[in-house]
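ok here's the first one, seq then struct tokens
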Amino acid sequence: MLRAGIVGLPNVGKSTLFNAVTRTRKAEAANYPFCTIDPNVGMVTVPDARLEALRKVAKTNVVIPAAIEFVDIAGLVRGASQGEGLGNKFLTHIREVDAIVQVVRCFEDADIHHVSGSVDPVRDIEVINTELMLADLDTVQRRRERVQKDVKRGDKASVAEEAVLGKLEAALAAGKPALVADLTPEEHAIAATFFLLSDKKTIFACNVREEDLATAAGEKEVRAWTIRAGDLAPAAAGVIHSDFERGFIKAETVAYDDLVRCGSTAAARAAGVYRMEGKEYLVQDGDVMLFKFAV
């Protein structure tokens, strides 16, 4: 069963989200930091209409849908990787989940305390991600020290592990999460055994006012971006935002002429002209691109 951990700074709405997703009131939602200490756990079944059709084929009344376990984890603060705010305990809870739902406060309200004294979603995301990476860096360095003896005696498994640890340490020290470290599939399999915090897939849940929901994505716009001739895809992404370049994964790309001819991205996909490009792609004038990134 997949386990998703709900994380974020204190008092940003993690417990409220947990209660909404699990349709319970197990998690205390209060207007003060650290109202959650021990993690709350709830189960959510995944609706799947196909199961009913399969039930009829199998001639059974027993139907067991897939389920996801959500874990409401206490708030992290700057310095959590060094133990601030019981950080070590809370980081351990994150290590046990398969994916992360990071709750980010995006609304102003003088009556609701913010641990940093002001609302800044980008700063808050960077605080959480930095603490996860710092905790991972400590884990990687300690593990690297432990395998040195076996590496010196030529143990093949230890030599392979040390090589992966070296790549991970370099990425983390450069401010990159383990998830985007340049590893081969075989190396990713080794890295998975380390259960690193920043190696987990992350969904960002933006906490906005109810009255802002209708316009939370803002008005759609068509905008051209200026890049330099010869820029590769990550550099082009960085023109929009430095995080796009720092955590670049891939770019969904379609040429302007193809998109206009097809009339939509769906039609462009069907026509085979909508493609995925990686870090070495040389961006062309008129490219319409959707950047995928993780920071």
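and now the second one, same deal
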Amino acid sequence: MSANPQAGFEIKAYMQRIGQQARAAARHMAAAEAGAKNIALQEIANRIEASADQLQAENRKDLEAGRANGLSDAMLDRLELTAERIASMAAGLRQVASLADPVGEISDMQYRPSGIQVGRMRVPLGVIGIIYESRPNVTADAAALCLKSGNATILRGGSEAIFSNQAIAACIQYGLQQAGLPANAVQVIETTDREAVGELIRMETYVDVIIPRGGKGLIERISSEARVPVIKHLDGICHVYIDDDADLDKALQVTFNSKTQRYGTCNTLETLLVSESIAKEVLPPLADMLIEKGVELRGCETSCNLISDCIAATDEDWDTEYLAPILSVRVVKDMDEAIDHIERHSSRHTETIITENYSHARRFLREVDSSSVMVNASTRFADGFEYGLGAEIGISTDKLHARGPVGLEGLTSLKFIVYGDGQIRE
């Protein structure tokens, strides 16, 4: 790990050194055997579990500072390292270790008329810069996926999680050393100076891609200022549409879980759309469940007429990612109007339809243009761990280079390979 920058430290020189070290490490990681990478992941997981008390002690420093600085409840929830989340970090590392190594995988080999064979090989991206806020578990998740996919990574967590991130970084360094892999394969930037981010996103020579995770303001800044390609999503305005042919029990349970399982995540439900033919049947009992849980409802005129404790929604509500116990509700005429609403207001993250009508389900899957589209399932499943990818690096709402939860394959690329036997072109 690099020396800790002190007062007067030259950020540009520090970041250049970090970049050079990452580029050198990336060459070694691209050639690393799957066994060595898996040993590192297992050792990091073991160290995280063994260091649980220390991790929580360091995390408490961040939580205390966060409260003193007026962080919202949603941000504090993201910041907290509970025993369950520490165990989940370790489980995520082990799951990534159990996944097949994508590096070197060859596909689509075909003979050409000339006699050569042409195919593709999966290769690492190189050096990945990851900029994130609040959630310290991202440090372990990002390290795991970058390590297994043969990349080097530069991690820059938020200043609000500095103690937690450094404690996790120590566990990562231990695991790399135990596996005989280069220590600079995972570097956690140790300065909270914001200029470090500016340098990182401009280092085209050393960094191949930037992945920002955090609030909309952070991601907009990175997207507008970066000289390095960015994999991103700005926000998670997710929808559930309860169709005419929905099963009432499924509608209640899926909607309730989508909103209340956790409030401060990008795959949490923010807008509920209900077909008018079923609204009188589904909205009153669903509203009772949500209000009892403490969720504030903001609805259209029809919704407010059906729900006694409902605030009139504004135009802004349909475009808001609350990350809080607030839900927008709109009654729509039919699926056409539901899809139109999603097209105008969705952030292209995750949308769900609740229906028993196969044709309606197929149409929704085909026409809704989001990175995850679901039938009769909670939006909270839009997650790399739940999709079987292991810990995810983030969820991309871009269409290039990766879309949806970004796991191992999303951190690799394909190159053409050719096998010949002395062929020359006429």
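notes on #2: The first helix runs from residue 11 to 31. Residues 220 and 234 are 7 Å apart (CA to CA).
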